[in-house]
Amino acid sequence: MSGQKIYEGILPVHKPEGVTSADVIRKLQRHFKPSDTFQGYLENETSRRSRDSNWQTRKKRRKLLHPDVKIGHGGTLDPMATGVLITGIGVGTKHLSKFLECSKTYETIIVFGAETDSYDRMGKIVRKADYEHVTRELVEEAMKKFRGKIMQRPPIFSAKRIQGKRLYEYAREGIEPPMAIKSSAVEVYDLRIVEWYEPGTHEYKWPEEELPAEEKEVAERMLDKEAAIPVASEAEAEAAQANTAAEDTKKRKVSPDILNEASEGVKDDAATKRQKTDTQNLNPESTTEEPNVVKKEHNTAKTDEAKESDPITIPAEKEEEAPRPPAAKIIMTVSSGFYVRSLAHDLGKAVGSCALMSELVRSKQGDYTLEPENILEYKDLDAGEEVWSPKVIRLLEAWQEKNP
């Protein structure tokens, strides 16, 4: 043993857009293992393993002699999202569960007038709707129903499992899950608009690609499920869940078996065209063969009584114009298990239109905030150990002092 100090604990990292949470862990590993900063940790780990009979087998011998810095994270962020990603180093990995359960603060940009299969700008457009009636006042009124305890349905492109298969896998194959997607009870502690963007005053846009016609029908059916349901107690949450499940059963006009058979020719083609590396935000990738068609037609004059499940169709002549939708920057503090993408989608329905999430920043998780002195910048890793090491040591030592 060299007597070098052992650094471990909780390390918040500022995740940039375009990388997965797993990418962050791998990059930390690549920089930490060969560094002088973590030699004390690695020597201690080698010594510990040499005394542990479980590491004496030939199969584990190499890992005994060449350990990695143990690193995990306390809750993923989608590739398009930025902000606080909590990582655990060494013994810190045992404390990550508390960050899965803690409250989180997000800042998001929601753009109205269109919805995608993934509920965000990384997906492909399923439907467009009129947005001329959408005002800040209308949105603020609709937001009242999303505060407090609500039942929220996960996005169809999420890692939730149904019968052992993730939801995004069903979506990529263009088929509905064999049973209803269950809503979950979540809580919204704070939800407010911090900036409103009138049409034509911002650069947030819808995606350009639309789903192919053969996949759009299933996507529309899944997107038309009921939006978030406000609840006042756990008992009411259970009752709301039961009612939602009953409604889902009623709405299923075609059995899962028939659906599977009908989409058999689509599955192989869709599966080969669509690939994405992160399980939190996998989106289909295929070319649009025909323009988006919205089957329902409604009066474009919409008031505060606009129904959440009744989006207004854009008249044909407007589809040729460049979209100039309104958008809003919204800040929220929410419980664990909350999907910001679902909020964007449901809020669009609540104002009689459609909406998608265009930007997302996690600005706080637990006690860790997105402030330069409180977080490791991802870009600092490439700047060299002399840049990132002092901040990493300071953050880990601060955690060790609080958790002796």
Automatic annotation (TrEMBL):
Superkingdom of this entry's organism?
Eukaryota
UniProt keyword Lipid biosynthesis present: no
Q: Please name the Pfam families in this protein's record.
A: TruB_N
Indicate, by first and last residue, each region the UniProt record lists as having compositional bias (Polar residues).
Answer: 278-290
Q: List GO molecular-function terms, semicolon-separated.
A: RNA binding; tRNA pseudouridine(55) synthase activity
Q: Which Gene Ontology cellular-component terms appear in the entry?
A: nucleus
Q: Name one GO biological process term.
A: mRNA pseudouridine synthesis
Which UniProt keyword terms apply here?
A: Isomerase, tRNA processing
Q: PANTHER family attached here?
A: PSEUDOURIDYLATE SYNTHASE TRUB1, TRNA-PSEUDOURIDINE SYNTHASE
HAMAP family membership: TruB_bact
State the protein's name: tRNA pseudouridine(55) synthase
Organism of origin: Talaromyces atroroseus
